[in-house]
# Entry
Amino acid sequence: MQLAITIFFLNALYISINTFRTVLVVKGHRVLAPVVSVLEEAVYVMALAIALKNINSPINIVAYALGFGVGIYIGILIEERIALGYVNFQVTISDNDAYHDLPDRIRALGYGITVTSAEGRDGTRLVLSILVPRKAQRRLMQNIQEMAPDAFVLVTEPIQLSGGFWNKSVDKRYSKKDQK
# Structure
């Protein structure tokens, strides 16, 4: 039974690292992803060697498979906790007196906003574009839902960023707020 537990934990560890490394690759972390992959492969070789050496036991096979599933789950939790990268909120609201001050209210919370006027089926709309670190995503969504409960909100993850007012001081400001 101890062997099955070892196989489970090694495979869960391997898959957790694998999931996190995959996210790093997708997000373009050219230095960190290869470093993490070295650790990933070391754990993989150990886990696979132990599992293959003891494949004659069905409980070891089950432990390996369960470790895989748990590893995926843990890897997702790690990535969510670290929250690498940015998201762009596209918030569409009615261009009326009820929401006319919404951009300024959101700016007062420390977010940068670009406002565009648009035409919708029922008239003029304001489209707010707000780029934030993923760490600030939940808080911004809560703020928008409180201030404009009927707003249409679309959140996307940009692949590349260039230009604009965005800089490291904004990143630091959001990180400090999330640590409170």
In short: Residues 2-82 form one domain. The chain has a mean pLDDT of 87.
